[in-house]
Amino acid sequence: MARRRQLYEGKAKILFEGPEPGTLVQYFKDDATAFNAQKKGTITGKGVLNNRISEYLMTRLAEIGVPTHFIRRLNMREQLIREVEIIPLEVVVRNVAAGSLSSRLGIPEGQRLPRSIIEYYYKNDQLGDPMVAEEHITCFGWASTQDLDDMVALTLRVNDFLTGLFLGVGITLVDFKLEFGRLWENEEMRIVLADEISPDNCRLWDAKTGEKMDKDRFRRDLGKVEEGYQEVARRLGILPEAGVRDMKGPEAMQ
To answer: Residues 48-91: pLDDT tens digits?
Structure first.
């Protein structure tokens, strides 16, 4: 098993030094967290499924001209990505009322919104990832006005494309979270889509029954969490041929 230098470990992924300058290896864990890591658990096979689902969606987005950090999948749990300077913001798109939007504003869960809403959250676990406004973002230098314009334009394209893609397989894209990074090439910078797109950071409901097929099954103790993730992969036509099985990660160098 390859020995690589570990650079970062988050709640759902580990980043290792890549084989070439400017690259990283992103490893998907089975660990699951909710409510700012107050609830923790394991979803068997989640890392394998999220790796495949994110690969598929990032590849499809690249085909329509959305720049991403994704290069290629390496194995069941790892993918090669470009090293980017992560912008410390979570960009949340809401198409249907659910989660914190419903609880904050008293809108019944499941009510379709008059139009899609974009919200910003400051990436800071200690503060609980608070919601922020554009004024906070530009004032504190987390992103420039041009950065935000680029992020919003990409976010709207991603939402339009993924909404149609999921609807085509009988899934409603309720809401989702995106992260972006700055990619430097030949002293030129551009904003690219980073992190992952999977049932971990998307709310995905069956278009007919409203059944949840995402991490809300873990958050709300609904059971059959693994089955929900597997159903998303099955509908997208990418369930691993050999089925979901456990794979250990690469050894980290001390």
So the answer is: 999 999 999 999 999 999 999 999 999 999 999 999 999 999 99
Rounded CA gap, 207 and 220, in Å? Answer: 20
Sketch the domain layout of the chain as residue ranges.
3-84+224-252, 85-206
Topology of domain 85-206, CATH: D-amino Acid Aminotransferase; Chain A, domain 1 (3.30.470)
Supply 80's token pair.
């090669």
- Tell me, yes or no, if the two domains 3-84+224-252 and 85-206 fold the same way: no
Cα 86 to Cα 172: distance, rounded to the nearest angstrom: 29
Instruction: Please answer whether residues 5 and 19 qualify as being in contact, where contact means their C-beta atoms are separated by less than 8 angstroms.
Output: no
Eight-state DSSP code of residue 182: E
Which of these CATH numbers, 3.30.200.20, 3.30.505.50, 3.40.50.620, 3.90.580.10, describes 3-84+224-252? 3.30.200.20
Question: Smallest Cα–Cα separation from 119: which of 87, 151, 161?
Answer: 151
Q: What is the pLDDT of residues 217-240, one digit of tens each?
A: 988 888 888 999 999 999 999 976
Q: Give the tokens for residue 68.
A: 């991403």
CB 175 within 8 A of CB 96: yes
Q: Report residue 143: phi and psi, to 5°.
A: -160, 150
Residue from 165, 136, 164 nearest 235 by CA: 165
Q: What is the pTM of this model?
A: 0.90
